[in-house]
UniProtKB/TrEMBL annotation:
It is a single-pass membrane protein. Pfam families: LicD. Keywords: Membrane, Signal, Transmembrane, Transmembrane helix. Residues 1-21 form the signal peptide. One of its GO terms (biological process) is glycoprotein metabolic process. InterPro entries: FKTN/MNN4/W02B3.4-1, LicD/FKTN/FKRP_NTP_transf. One of its GO terms (cellular component) is membrane. This is LicD/FKTN/FKRP nucleotidyltransferase domain-containing protein.
Length: 274
């Protein structure tokens, strides 16, 4: 499904090849390395790549790295440290540039427990509206952000990369459901950014969907609630608890032992059991 509204037309002019019969005119691709894109949507190739082999027994954790910056698996300590600073840098960048974003999926579940990432997580999930995606593509695509921690001990660079197939709001071949990434250029760990669109704006204007079939009512998402996550300002959906129950069930909010970790309420954190 291709939407002809103005916002996505702007995104198309930045990201996508011309499509025969489309209601809007789309110029040739302008992103570096995307000259192979053809007019036929059937030739859509996967944009983001992870160092995951198809061989039996491949380590699933490899799927959480962007292959362009992958130099080998990091230790658990480095993973936790990387994700902590990466999400802080991401949230600060979006707030400073007045870009609306909120945390989602397993990341939102971590926030529900103690406003932190779940200690066994390997990546971060965030969402934006497609109108925000347009601005990301227009003003910030493939930019590198320099980050220094508040104690000056941690320094990194992150690339914001927009998937050029993000213009197509349907699932398509199924391998471009992630619309953008915020990538640690040191080791390849990343934040997944997915955009929400009104797939049927005429009959269902209040229903928003992503390319991975997650559907939300606007009243469940908005107005966003201001909170904190990993020590910085963040936004969360308005009906966060109902959304978590629907996606993960009641057990996710009550189970206190998971992935070799135990929840200690007096400490307000998950502790590794070894």
């Amino acid at each position: 499904m291709i939407h002809s509204w103005i916002a996505m037309g702007v995104l198309a002019s930045l990201l996508s090849p011309a499509v025969a019969g489309a209601p809007i005119s789309i110029p040739a691709p302008v992103l570096p390395g995307m000259d192979h894109l053809k007019l036929d949507r059937k030739l859509e190739g996967k944009y983001f790549h992870e160092p995951v082999g198809h061989e039996k027994g491949a380590d699933d954790r490899l799927g959480h790295y962007d292959t362009r910056y992958f130099h080998g698996m990091v230790t658990d300590k480095e993973r936790v440290e990387t994700l902590h600073h990466m999400v802080r840098a991401y949230l600060d960048f979006f707030r400073e540039n007045k870009l609306e974003t909120w945390i989602a999926h397993g990341t939102l579940l971590g926030w529900w427990w103690n406003s932190k990432l779940l200690p066994w997580d390997w990546d971060v999930d965030t969402q934006v509206l497609d109108t925000t995606l347009v601005r990301l593509a227009n003003e910030f695509n493939q930019t590198i952000s320099h980050y220094v921690s508040t104690d000056k001990k941690y320094e990194r660079e992150y690339m914001l990369d927009i998937n050029p197939w993000a213009y197509f709001r349907d699932n398509g071949p199924g391998h471009n459901i992630i619309d953008a990434r915020w990538i640690d250029t040191t080791n390849g760990l990343y934040i997944d950014i997915t955009a929400l669109s009104a797939f049927d704006p005429r009959s269902k204007p209040d229903l928003l969907e992503c390319k991975n079939y997650h559907k939300y009512k606007t009243e469940d998402l908005f107005p966003l609630r201001e909170s904190s996550f990993e020590g910085v300002v963040s936004m969360v959906p308005y009906k966060y608890q109902e959304m978590l129950l629907e996606e993960y069930s009641l057990k996710s909010l009550t189970r206190t032992n998971y992935e070799n970790h135990t929840w200690y309420p007096e400490q307000g954190q998950w502790v590794f059991d070894g």
